[in-house]
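Blinded run. Sample ID left blank on purpose so nobody reads anything into the name before looking at the predicted structure. Input follows.
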Amino acid sequence: MSNKQGIHEVSTGTEVEDATIAIVVSRWNSMITEAMMEGAVSTLLANGVKKDSITIVRCPGSYELPLTAQWLLETNRYEGVIALGVVIRGGTPHFDYVCDAVNRGVLDLNLRFSTPVAFGVLTTDNVQQALDRAGDKGNKGSEAALALLEMITVRRRLT
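Blinded prediction complete.
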């Protein structure tokens, strides 16, 4: 499609009915990650993804998200993966190491597999901030699902 200047432009969209999607959910901080997962699933279904096209895999914590997502990508069964987790700041540098590792791990998967992996990992200072981002003040799982659907659409339109 061409824009007003006559330049070819690839637009995004979120209605991808026939997409197969995997969601990797961290069990650590499950009261938050389960709400994020419900938001992601609801958003996928609302945008036409069929229930039987969604696979949910749980892993121990956010640190394990990239490896679990990699295993899913290696099956070549999924057009995209959503990684959902929560890392809450504590009194040690552990927070920084985990956040950096998960961020780099998801980035590496996107580039290596050329398949979108949506980053739905909350990095917050406290539990209340995480609860806010998984519920009443917006659901980051839902936002990650929308981002994934847009990336799937862009890839389809480019190939």
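Unblinding after everyone has recorded impressions. The chain has one domain: 21-158.
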